Backbone:
């Protein structure tokens, strides 16, 4: 006779079977879906990447406070980075102008050079996200990349170097099991995890109606500090100035960021 399944085994199986779809997993749990223990254990045993469930002691507390906490997190690299204190999220447009690139490189570079134990959180997306992570690594810092695909799927392809860097100084994190391809609906869902991980969210350049704006609103819902780099009033990138007008912290130099963590 098969031994009774543990809650951990059930969560991992349902997440793999449901391809990380939170609503589907929740529905299966709520209706107490019938499961075959041998089938569950077979699927779980073949999971190619480590997984942490919300029932595990090392599940990051920050995720328990986000909207629809992930049931399972799949990862590659140093998982302890997800529980480091004072994580700085950096997000922005996928198509930054010269100003956006320059301020991102300057602020992240200076911030990281002052303390190599600091951790930058982002989404590995083309543009500001990838630039922030690349700058962090180049300056001896650590990074957490939250993916909108399975942990084995590199997206976008331009971020291959970041994807391959997972090790002691970096972490790839996803609620989607291996093999799940990126999809438009995954990224707003992914953004709540970036916001959840970040103690402070820095926006260097973005538009009002964008994924960057979604991440910032998730951060506000989680009572996180929003820091924004002021931009030209003539620029199409209007998000930062709008957020500053509503009370976000204007960032004019690296010290402004550091002061937020000392509050």
Residues:
């Amino acid at each position: 006779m098969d031994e009774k399944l543990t809650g951990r085994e059930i969560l991992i199986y349902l997440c793999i079977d449901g391809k990380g779809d939170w609503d589907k997993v929740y529905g299966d749990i709520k209706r107490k879906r019938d499961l075959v223990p041998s089938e569950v254990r077979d699927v779980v045993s073949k999971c190619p990447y480590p997984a942490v469930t919300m029932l595990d002691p090392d599940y990051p507390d920050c995720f328990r406070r986000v909207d629809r906490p992930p049931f399972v997190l799949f990862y590659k690299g140093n998982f302890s980075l997800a529980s480091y204190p004072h994580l700085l999220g950096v997000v922005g447009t996928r198509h930054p102008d010269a100003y956006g690139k320059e301020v991102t490189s300057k602020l992240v570079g200076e911030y990281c050079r002052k303390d190599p134990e600091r951790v930058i959180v982002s989404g590995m997306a083309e543009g500001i996200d990838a630039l922030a992570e690349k700058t962090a690594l180049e300056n001896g810092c650590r990074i957490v990349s939250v993916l909108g695909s399975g942990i084995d799927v590199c997206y976008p392809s331009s971020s291959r170097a970041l994807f391959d860097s997972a090790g002691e100084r970096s972490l790839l994190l996803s609620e989607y099991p291996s093999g799940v391809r990126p999809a438009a609906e995954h990224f707003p869902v992914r953004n709540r995890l970036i916001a959840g991980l970040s103690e402070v969210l820095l926006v260097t350049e973005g538009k009002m109606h964008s994924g960057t704006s979604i991440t910032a609103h998730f951060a506000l819902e989680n009572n996180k500090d929003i820091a924004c780099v002021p931009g030209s009033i003539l620029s199409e990138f209007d998000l930062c100035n709008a957020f500053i007008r509503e009370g976000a912290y204007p960032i004019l130099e690296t010290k402004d960021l550091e002061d937020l963590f000392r509050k």
Observations:
- The longest strand covers residues 72-77.
